[in-house]
Amino acid sequence: MNSVVKTMTDDAPEQDLGGRTYSMTQLCDEFELTPRALRFYEQRKLLNPLRRGATRVYTHRDRARLKLVLRGKRFGFTLTEIKEMLDLYDGPGGKEQQLDVVLPKLQFQLKELQKEHEELGQVLVELESTCQELAASKDRFAG
User: Fold this and answer.
1) H-type helices in the chain, by residue range?
2) CA dihedral defined by 85, 88, 94, 100, rounded to 10 degrees?
3) Which of 26, 32, 74, 121 is 20 to 30 A from 138, comparing alpha carbons?
């Protein structure tokens, strides 16, 4: 399970106000997002870009957080849950507290997705069988 925690935390952002910066266009292109989506994540306090006049300037930290937001969404977490997990990194417990909280959440989500996968497999078998039955019925009526 350690690799599961790694996927949510290894790219955890460091305090980075210098170094490489990214424009909205660069992040949108890299992550296949719209500017509206980036602004929405900013509004939800998931990203906190710097401003140069009216232009948003995203730091390495913003890029890392965005990567984790998108990963969390793929894992099935809500934006609120993702924000809570990301914000733990900056809290008094730091990365250790984040790991203590995130690991059980990821393990629970993994079990839920495994159950859904199993149920979906059963539905697919049933649907395939129904399609075969209907095709056979159609052949009998046509023949």
Assistant:
1) 2-9, 24-31, 35-43, 60-74, 79-88, 94-142
2) -50
3) 121
- Find tokens 């424009």 and name the residue: 23
Exposed (0-12), middle (13-18) or buried (19+): which is 39, by Cβ within 10 Å?
middle
CATH code for the domain in which residue 59 is found: 1.10.1660.10
Q: Count the domains in the chain.
A: 1
| 53 dihedral zone (left: phi>0; alpha: psi -120 to 50; beta) | left
pLDDT tens digits, one per residue of 87-132: 988 878 888 888 899 999 999 999 999 999 999 999 999 999 999 9
**Angle of the 2-9 helix axis to the 60-74 helix axis, nearest 10:** 130
CA separation for the pair 101, 81 (Å, rounded): 11
With beta carbons less than 8 A apart as the criterion, state whether 106 and 8 touch.
yes
Indicate whether this model's pTM tops 0.85.
Answer: no
Which residues span the domain enclosing 20? 2-142
User: What pairs with residue 51 in β-bridges?
Assistant: 56
